[in-house]
Amino acid sequence: MKKNKLILFLIFSIYLVSCNSNNSKFPTEKRYWTTNDYVKVIPELKYGFKSDEKLPSFNDPKTRLIVEKFTDPTNYKIVLDDKELGLKYKNEVSIEFFRLWKDMNSVYSAIDRKDMFIYEKEMIKVWHFGLGLELRYFKLGNDVILESSDDPNSNSVQRIINSNIETLISNFNIYLDGINDEKSLTNLGIVLFSEGIDKYFTELVELYPDANYSGMLRKIYLMEKKSNSEKIKSSLNNLKMLIESKNINT
Q1: Between helices 120-148 and 187-196, what is the axis angle to 10°?
Q2: Going residue by residue through the chain (250 aa), what tens digit of pLDDT does each one get?
Q3: Kindly report the CA angle at 182 between 178 and 184, in degrees rounded to 5?
């Protein structure tokens, strides 16, 4: 009996050491991760695991908290949505988060021998992290331009503002390119992908109802024809109807 207890104790101790050594590399005890945290975490996720090791994932109870923190948009919202903080300061933080997010995209992009995404949920959550961030990043940048301009209503300033919005819409179209890889997603991945369209593209149109969405509508038309998923087709159709109901610049 004592021998069995000793074996169980040793197994439990090894399990704890394994968990602690893994999680100690990541500030999971912090309520929110700052840009400085991401500067440390991203290289650890990209290079700190052997080729045969699994990355932190939502399906692994031992590492779930890591990926939950990694993909949590509250990390940037807590700063960028704070009305008490200065506009220029928030813009600087958004620039740094945007730079880091570009690097985040490569962490969970691996595919297996059947061309299926190994970490589809994690990958899509990173995409969603970026969609919400971009909405704030471009708005803060435009707000800084307007605040710093002698004449915010001048043609030159408005051209810059409109150009930035066009870039934002173009960036959102890149998300829709993911439909080209629809066969690499499971049913869960398709649902998550569609939820990104429903949530973030709606926020985009609500924020800029008068922008030019003609390019996005063309993209929607092409992706509707290409997709074999009724879920994705439904999300695209709802987006199309939303744009057409609010916008005449199409």
Answers
A1: 10
A2: 444 544 444 444 444 444 444 556 899 999 999 999 999 999 999 999 998 899 999 999 999 999 999 999 999 999 999 999 999 999 999 999 999 999 999 999 999 999 999 999 999 999 999 999 999 999 999 999 999 999 999 999 999 999 999 999 999 999 999 999 999 999 999 999 999 999 999 999 999 999 999 999 999 999 999 999 999 999 999 999 999 998 655 5
A3: 105
**Which amino acid belongs to residue 126?**
V
Residue-wise burial string across 11-45, b where 16 or more C-beta atoms lie within 10 A, e elsewhere: eeeeeeeeeeebbeebbbeeeebbbebbeebbeeb
Structure tokens at 3: 């021998």
